[in-house]
Amino acid sequence: MKILVCISNVPDTTTKITFTPDNKAFNKAGVQFIINPYDELALTKALELNEAAGGGTVTVIHVGAADTEANLRKALAVGADDAVRIDAEPTDAFFVANEIAAYAKDKGFDIIFTGRESIDYNGGQVGGMIAELLDLPMVNVINSISLQGNAATIERDIDGGREVVSVDTPFVVSAQKELTEPRIPNMRGIMMARSKPLQVIAPAAAEKRTEISQYQAPQSKAGCKFIDAAEAETLIQLLHNEAKVI
Amino acid sequence: MRTDNYQHPDHYLLDELLTEEHKLVRDAVRSWVKKELSPIIEDYAQRAEFPKHILKGLGSIGAFGPSLPVEYGCGGMDQISYGIIMQELERCDSGIRSTASVQGSLVMYPIYKYGSEEQRRKYLPKLASGELMGCFGLTEPDFGSNPGGMVTNFKDMGDHYLLNGAKMWISNAPFADIAVVWAKNEAGKIHGLIVERGMPGFSTPETHGKWSLRASATGELVFDNVKVPKENLLPNVSGLKGPMGCLDSARYGIAWGALGAAMDCYDSAKNYSIERIQFDKPIGGFQLTQKKLAEMLTEITKAQLLTWRLGVLKNEDRASTAQISMAKRNNVEIALQIAREARQIHGGMGITGEYPIMRHMMNLESVVTYEGTHDIHLLITGMDITGISAFR
Ligand SMILES: Cc1cc2nc3c(=O)[nH]c(=O)nc-3n(C[C@H](O)[C@H](O)[C@H](O)COP(=O)(O)OP(=O)(O)OC[C@H]3O[C@@H](n4cnc5c(N)ncnc54)[C@H](O)[C@@H]3O)c2cc1C
User: Which end of chain B is more exposed for a tag (fewer CB within 10 A), N or C?
Assistant: First the structure.
C-alpha cells in the first residue's frame, strides 16, 4: 500500500499552558513539542499494515515551520520512508486540509491516515476535510483495520457497541487509542533516518476561514477542604453557602 | 512503585549542546525505559533477580554496542549517543546499565577492536541483537585493583589452548553465552580468549547475597582444563593494554550512567519536597531542604558539563585514560552524595521501594568500586599530574 500519514506537532502532555499577555496566542517559549499521540498510532498502524502485506511505502506529511522538523525525523526513525513538510504556519483546519489535499491529489495514495484529533486544539476536522476535498470515503475514529487486497475491514466504536465497516482503497481513516501501541524508534532507525528524504514544499494557495480571537485559561481549581465525618452540619452549610450547589 | 515521571534537570540549558539526533536517542531510550523497565525493576531488585526477558528489548532498541559499525549489526552512532543510552538506562538502574556496558564495551568492543574479521562476523551481529550475551573476565580472587598479577593461564597444546584458573565478580556470568577472558600465556603475556558456554571444564557459579546491583547477575568463571580452539584467541592485542582499552570505553559509559542515577535521585527529591507538607508547608520551603536541593543541582550541572565535554573529546578520539578516570570518579562520587541527601529528603519513605533512592544508593556502592575503585582513579589522576605512579 502507498500510505500517507498526516502528522501534527503538539505541546508535550506535561506542558503548563500559558498565553501571551493579550491572550491572543499560545506562549510557545520553553515548550517541548511532540508528535500528536494519535498520529503516532496512525504511523505505527500504517507501518504494520505494510509489514503484514510484505511491502509498500509510508510517507509522513506535516504543515508547519522548520522548527518542527525534529518530529518528522522521529517519524522517519520510527520507520516512515520519506517525509514532506509544507512550509507554512498551520493556521486552521481548512487551510491544513487544503495543503495536504493539494499535495496528495495526484500522488495515488491508497490510504490517508490522520489522528482522531490533535490533543492541543482538539478540532478533529482535518481528516474529514481532506476526504471531501479529494472526494474519498472516510471512516472516522477507528479501533482496528485489516486489509485483504484493496478491501479494508474496519472496526469502530459506536454508542453502546461496535460497527464493522468495509471500504475499498483509496480512503481516509482517523486513528484512535485502541488501534495499536506506539512504536519507539531504535538506534538503527535513528541512524537510517539521517539519510531518508525530507522534502520541503512551498504552500499551495489556500485560505484560512477561521480566526482565534481569544484564549481563556480554565479557572484554577480551588484547594480541597476536608470536613470531619462527625461534622456533617458544617459540610451541608459549606455546600449551601460557599459552593452553592445545594 | 510509583509512575515514572522522570525529567532530567537542565539548569544551564545544556540540551542546546546536543544535536536533534542525540535528543531523539534520549527520548527513545527514556520512553523504552518508562514502558519496559521502570514498572518491573523494583520487584526484580527486591528479589535479587536479573530480568532476563528484557534482553531482547535492549537488543532491539539498540543498547548493545551502539557506536560500533552498522556492517556488524550495530548502531554506528557517536560516543555521545552511547553515553546518553547508558545514562538513560542507569537513570533507572545501575544493574541494567552494567549489563549493557559489559555487552557493548567489554565484550563487543574487544571483539571488534582486537578480533579477527571472522570473529567479528561470527559474534557481533548476535551480540548486538541480544541473541548472544557475553561477559568479561578480568578480576580474580587475589587480583582486583592489580589485574596484571593474574594467575589464570593457557598453554599451547598444538591444535588448541588449555585454559586454567578462575575469575571472580563477573557481571552477566551466570547467563552469558560467551566470555571474553584475559589470561597469561606460557611467556606470561596477557591475551584475550573467547570461551563459550558448554566447553567442557567451564562453569559459572552465581554470587549470591549481594546488597548492591541486585537486579544484575554476578558470578565466577571457573576454568578447569578447558580446551579452547585456537581461532578463539583475539589476535590483535597482547598485554594489559588489551583489557585496559576496554575499561576506558566502559568507564566512559559509567561516567554518563552514574550521572543518570544522580539526576533520578534529584528529580525524585525535588518532586517529593514540593508534595510533602510538614508544619503546614512543603518541606521544600525550608532552608535546609533547599540547601540540599541547590547543592545537588550545582553538582549535577558541573558533572553534566564535564561529561558532555568528555563526550566531545571521545568523539574526536582525544579522550585520555586520565580524563575518563576523573569523570568516572567524580560522577560516581556526586551520585552517591546526592543519593544520600535525596534519601533524607524523602524521610522514612526514602528507605522503601516506593522510591528509587535506596536502590540507587546501594547500586552505586558497586559502581564506586568496579572498573577501578574510587581511590585508584584518584591515583591515576595523581600519576597524570606528577608522572609518578603511587599505586605500584
Ligand atoms: C557487582 C560487581 C560487578 C563486577 N563486575 C566485574 C566484571 O564484569 N568483570 C571483572 O573483571 N570485574 C568485575 N568486578 C570486579 C571489580 O572490578 C573489582 O572489585 C575492583 O577492581 C576492585 O577489586 P577488589 O574488589 O579485589 O578490591 P581490592 O583491589 O582488593 O581493593 C580493596 C581496597 O584497597 C584499595 N587499594 C587497592 N590497591 C591500592 C593501592 N595501590 N593504593 C591505594 N589503595 C589501594 C582499593 O581502592 C579498595 O579500596 C565487579 C565487581 C562488583 C562488585
Answer: C
